[in-house]
Description:
Keywords: Membrane, Transmembrane, Transmembrane helix
Transmembrane segments: 65-85, 91-107, 119-140
Strand content: under 5%
Helix content: over 70%
Structural class: mainly alpha
Radius of gyration: 16 Å
Number of strands: 0
Protein name: Wax synthase domain-containing protein
Largest sheet: none
Amino acid sequence: MRLSQYILKRNGVPLGHRSSLRNNLHRSLSAGTNTEFWRHWNPIWGYYLWKGVYVPAQRWVSKSISLLISFAVSGALHDLAIGLATGNWQVFFSIWFLFMGFFLLLSRKWDVTYSQFPFLIRMGINLVSLSGCFLAAGLLNRNIFT
Length: 146
């Protein structure tokens, strides 16, 4: 699948369309599961992680481990970008993204769904899941790496 096809599938509009960001935010934040949230969040980045990390990693490890590797690589690349831009090298994003990967796997295992709730509740649940992982990563980072 090409990037343009992937974006159309995830956003419902072509790459570069003026509604692309709005569709991306609405589809991800209104998701009724954590899996659906990540399916729609940042589709360009997701495409390259899927194609360059997730699929190749499955040659050697399970889908679950491939997913965690993808989240870890994404976090590490965010850490690298921050380090290059600021000179402040850290691993916060790697930790945060691993927490989000574990949260995704657990929500799948326990079949957590909240699609029955109205949009604002679903949006709140999705934002709280991101924030909870962020806070947990911050606590771990502060207590181990500082």
